[in-house]
Amino acid sequence: MSTAMVNHYYCYCVDQDFGPLFIKLGSYFPYTGKVCLNGHEYLKRQLAREGIDFEALDNGLLSCADPMRAQRICDDLTPAKIEALVRKWLSRLPHPFTPEDRRAGYLYETSMLQAEFSLTQVFDRPVQGRVFFEQTIRDNLDLGRPDRVQLVFQRRVTQRTPGRFRTRVITDGVIPTLYIDYKHTRIKQYYKEGRALRTETTINDTKDFALGKRLKNLPILRKVGFQANRRLQDVQRISHDCWLGEDVFRGIHQPVEVGGQRAAALRFGDSRVLALLSCLVLFRLLPRGFTNRDIRNHIAQIFGKSLNPAQISYDLRRLRLHGLVERMPKTHRYRVTDLGFRSALFLSRSYSRLLRPGLASLVPSHQPPALTPLRQVFDKVDVAIQQAWEAQQIAA
Questions:
Q1: How many CB atoms lie within 10 A of CB 190?
Q2: Are 147 and 161 spatial neighbours (Cβ–Cβ below 8 Å)?
Q3: Which candidate, 103, 173, 327, 330, has a CA 20 to 30 Å from the CA of 218?
Q4: Does residue 126 sit in the same domain as residue 173?
């Protein structure tokens, strides 16, 4: 057995207004202290006191019946309330300084050692949020470069600026986490509990932003932290729109109802739909738009047979309710929308240049049209699966 001197004492408390917190006090002069509290716990206590329903997400909120009130509660967490909390618990706990010491002027002054400011954005479809974040990581691995760090923190970075500027991606199990460092400040971004994108700016030295450490500087420091979270997402760019792209795809290929009007789906791969999409690409540049007759004549050439005006009216109604075309005011003419042109161009080209030739090369045949690289890879996969199956049969 051995003995050791106690360096610090930890006092774990549960406050009526702030929830769980701890106070750490040194056992030797000058008896420095540290108070660690969580603003989210303060928010939960206030919401519960006011009878506002909410659902917690670890140390954040997943949902809240009155989000505007929740935000006002967060904004009302002032330095004065934190100072009052510290004084309250110091008066109740064993104090390192005797009454004589305190009368002589040995008092604690509250300052900020570390401050964390977080932004939690909850996805209604968690899987899409995870896809979005992983794509964000892939497309933003250079965020730690000095020229991009200064965009996030709005601070000029020169060769004389101290500290390391880097981006790190750390995987804990299957949860990737993005870290961006600036001097003593760090932004951490991760997908929290499979439900929300969490962005946290942790400031370990207020002097990184030319601010003092006293608690009265908290409002300015809070503004710095929250702005850093927002700027990070402004700087981040991804090469494709994960969830909006899926919404557009599903919106086109599923029935829709707009203002009480229903429209059938525009099924991908349907020959009539493909003919309509090709018309949208063709008519995009017409300054006066196009009419029922224009699209009817063009479809007759592509579709191989003529459609009557009622059938084209039905198709135009589908295109309009899906947002691909819009009717020009006080006319019977239509123009192609931006969404309509881009969707038509992408879908028609995907079918004609990717799906049709790709599937043709993958069709099992003793004499394929050409031994393409895609066909060679799939043949190898087919052989490997067959060998694995045969091996399992032998083992059995």
A1: 19
A2: no
A3: 103
A4: yes
